Fold:
Amino acid sequence: MKIAGEPESTSKDEAEYHSHDFEWEDLKAEVEADPAFSYHLSPFVGPAATTNSPPPPPPPPSSEAWRSFHRRHASGKFFKERRYLLKEFPELLNRNDCAKILEVGCGNGSTAVSVLRASESITVACDCSKDTLQKANEIISNSKGIDVKDRFCPFLLDVSKESFPDWLFCKACQSSLGQADGHLSDLNHHKMIKERPVFLRENQCCIGGMDFITMIFTLSAIPFDIMLSTLKYCVSVLKPGGLLLFRDYGNGSDIQW
Structure:
């Protein structure tokens, strides 16, 4: 769609660029046929439901279900590069300095690759599946037009069960800014995230917090009863003034959560 006042060449270039995201009908059919996503098709029953109401939908798939899903789609063809996100979240580009971005539930890197291509930001990304993290690293490293040296740092983590590594925003730095939050301090520190990222200098205790956190079709995969606490925990590693950006299914979507 052409925007009033927009140069014709720009409009055509953007239409060509965004036309390669993915085919919605193909994506819908594949998701609906996958048992791991069956809960998306069930009606949501809120806390005010009566005793005569139908039973609540099954919980979102477990971390193992997601790992199984990503193994089945190891080719990377299921998720296409999310080029539209920079239109929806222009904040990711409106920075004069090098933004620090955390992607929670990165999948095979379809969000990170768009951000890395369009900016000089540093992106750290976590997912509960080791297989899909390896695929994300492979896809991003082999993408044309992206210099990812010291700019992409994937690590294994299930945000619903495990705590973020201290090098994101250590407790001392959080406390100095008056925002230390220990409400999830009992979560496990995963053994595979202890290694510091290469872009941290030796005298740095941590990144110092994130400018942005993205959760793209991630929130709906988290059990409903811990969604709020998970969001609060994610916000705890944001710098003051940082933004949490999320996109997910909603009422009226082909696939609802």
Summary: Strands lie at 100-104, 122-127, 152-156, 162-163, 188-189, 210-216, 238-247. Residues 130-141 form the longest helix (12 residues). Residues 85-247 form a domain with the Rossmann fold fold (CATH 3.40.50.150).
